[in-house]
Fold this sequence. Notes:
It is a single chain. The chain is of the alpha/beta class. The chain has eight helices and five strands.
Amino acid sequence: RAVNDGAIGKNLLEENLNFETSSQIKDVTQWDDVNDLIIASDLGVFDYSSIRFDYAQTGKPMIFFVPDLEKYKEAREFLIPYEPTAPGPKIETEEELIKKIKTFDSWFSEFSNVYKDFLHKYTPGEDGQASKRVNKIVFGIN
Length: 142
């Protein structure tokens, strides 16, 4: 499966990465609802954003572009450890990022166990049974 369309979000534009402007790359910094982008995407490229927890529910690949990870760790405290909550490759250079984006079908399966563990540990209630649990708690219906 080829990556036919791309989207560049706010942080990537601010970093002035060398992405060529084309009909395949779209500036989505002004998009109203990030959930639309989550649904429409084939994969997600994130830094330290907590959106990875929402994105993980799709089961789609995630790449973590973190060229400044060590500096970021020194400057801030994470509420929870970063590495176990980033279930995908951690990339430090533009070249690596572009390669991972182009080849995500070939490497994504390597992260299947890490991804499953992440979902189980950090989003255990996201199992498609939320309405059933609400009905049981509120109305006593099984």
